[in-house]
Write a structure and sequence with these properties.
The protein folds into two domains: about 130 residues, ATPase, nucleotide binding domain (Nucleotidyltransferase, domain 5), CATH 3.30.420; about 160 residues, 2-Layer Sandwich (Nucleotidyltransferase, domain 5). The chain is built from ten helices and twelve strands. A five-stranded mixed sheet has the order 3-2-1-4-7. The chain has a five-stranded mixed sheet with strand order 10-9-8-11-12, with helices on both faces. It binds zinc ion. This is ROK family protein.
């Protein structure tokens, strides 16, 4: 059995782990993201890699390489964060692949965190054995990823598949991406909380009444009419985006992951029903809509699979011709 080092860099925490090629996390390290400094994030990550590699040596496990998944848009071939998350200061432009490789003396692959999650689902998860697969990760925001027979769909430099910024209403509220009515405004945790505050007439600046997505789901389950209407709007936006994606990609499967989708199977029932009613029958009939296998560890495991996937040539690995 082979091993690699997986790293998941998020806005609040960094996870590093020694991961077996079957996805088992053998050893893990967790740190708070030093959000105020790019160098701090890089240094912390290098330290965590050293710690994981040292643990591996005590177990006679020599990692095949390092795989990183990070928030933000990534140039996969260069290992550079092209457009970082606003939650990590100066994250844009960081040459993560080069810095980590020099520090650890191991080959490094760097990808966007949702691409990493999709990699886990298509290699050892719910989409194993399938090639045309789309992923939507519904968390604080909404991330997207796609793969086909050539591998992860990256576009010109790696910025493809921002499914959270598909507009489902051209007259909808303004999104911070510049567009209007983006899926993320309705289907993310923050979007669900936003809709609930709006429905209850609570000002966005009023901190005295804390509303978050889990509390909206709880109220909906308890029969609260406003919360139910918000969840119905969320399902409406999500099904509209899924139908557009199905019409565009003709996928075998759409995998839905992230904290929001962990709220229960009833979300999937209403979602599948709406997709079935409103999409082109020839296309929606060929697409399964399923829940992700991997939860909180998805980014870590997916990141760690990169050395195995790309070294074995299962997917084309631009920039790594060895
Ligand atoms: Zn947007």
């Amino acid at each position: 059995m082979r091993y690699s080092v997986g790293i998941d860099i998020g806005a609040t925490k960094i996870l590093a782990g020694l991961v077996r090629e079957d996805g088992t996390v053998v050893h893990r390290v967790r740190r708070t993201t030093p959000f105020d400094s790019r160098d701090g994030v890089v240094e912390t990550t290098c330290e965590m890699v050293r710690e994981v590699v040292l643990f591996g040596q005590t177990q006679d496990c020599c990692p095949a390489g390092i795989g990183v998944g990070t928030a933000g848009q990534v140039n996969f071939a260069e290992g550079i964060v092209v457009s970082g998350t606003p939650n990590i200061r100066d994250w844009t432009g960081v040459k993560l692949g080069e810095l980590l490789s020099a520090s650890a003396n191991l080959p490094v692959w760097v990808d966007n965190d949702v691409n990493a999650h999709l990699l886990a689902e298509v290699s050892i998860g719910v989409a194993a054995g399938r090639q045309n697969v789309l992923m939507l990760a519904l968390g604080t925001g909404v991330g997207g990823a796609a793969c086909n027979e050539s591998g992860i769909v990256r576009g010109t430099w790696g910025g493809a598949c921002e499914f959270g910024h598909i507009s489902v209403d051209f007259q909808g509220p303004a999104c911070n991406c510049g567009s209007r009515g983006c899926l993320e405004l309705y289907a993310s945790g923050t979007g669900i909380a936003r809709m609930m505050r709006q429905r209850l007439g609570i000002d966005a600046t009023d901190d005295s009444r804390w509303i978050d997505a889990p509390s909206v789901f709880e109220a909906a389950r308890a029969g609260d009419a406003s919360a139910r209407a918000v969840i119905a709007d969320m399902i409406g936006a999500l099904s509209t985006a899924c139908i557009s994606l199905i019409h565009t990609f003709n996928p075998q499967m759409i995998v839905l992951g992230g904290g929001v989708m962990e709220q229960g199977p009833w979300l999937f029932e209403s979602l599948r029903k709406r997709i079935g009613q409103q999409g082109m029958p020839s296309l929606v009939g060929a697409t399964e809509v399923v829940c992700a296998k991997f939860g909180a560890d998805a980014g870590l495991i997916g990141a760690a699979l990169q050395p195995f996937v790309y070294q074995c040539g299962w997917m084309r690995s631009e920039g790594h011709d060895d």
